[in-house]
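Give me the 3D structure for 1-deoxy-11-beta-hydroxypentalenate dehydrogenase.
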Amino acid sequence: MQVKDKTVVVTGAATGIGRALALAFAQAGARGVAIADLNAAGAAAVAAEVQAAAPDCKVFAQGVDVSDEAAVQSLADEATRRFGQIDVFCSNAGIILRKGLDASAEEWQRIWDINVMAHIHAAKAVLPQMLERGDGYFVNTVSAAGLLSQIGSAPYAVTKHAAIGFAEWLSITYGDRGIKVSCICPQGVQTNMLLGENGERKGFLQEGSVTAEHVAAATLEGIADERFLILPHPEVLEYYRRKGQDYDRWLHGMRRLHEKVMQEFGGIAV
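Predicted structure for 1-deoxy-11-beta-hydroxypentalenate dehydrogenase (270 residues):
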């Protein structure tokens, strides 16, 4: 699939990977790009940036809480009204919670609603029109944590595994009806989630980290190839193979990595 002349919705687009994706789609010739984020002012700022970079692209911004099914449906309705249809939906918004068993039930619910249910809300909102056309693309930002795990965050590891599981089901169920699905699964990306608001956070994933623009470029390549797994860090595929080949050995190695991270970074992995 080529993104030229396609219409795209990107959530979590006020910063980081979402911003980079919106710019990359517009600069690649997308006909329309919807910029959505909980931070409505940030979304509007990125929309202005995207419009300046790609004057021929139709752009609009909308404040959206992706954990709210009705809000995601409203975003889909507005994008459809403005563009005529949605060709690509990038369900990119996500959060991290750096806790284990100390996370409260309310904290688990919040990260579940954003990291998992947002993908489900997007599919429910957009899938009917895609099935009617027999064509459509879901691009879900997940994480290498969905394939491997996340040192220092049980909620992040669990919800990202669940997000992969839903994307697999979506592809299996609707792939023969023209629906394409990709999961973006990077390791460290140089965003506020990794570095902190002021660059104060330290963690082992900063070594080997890539820019959000690198992730966006890899995403466009992955969409062109219609690959389910988009891996901005290619080594993740080898780690995933090792996990499948010898699960116990992989777990032993991860326990050693956990101990190293606890000693050097106080358990903070990202």
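The chain has a mean pLDDT of 94. Let me know if you want a second pass.
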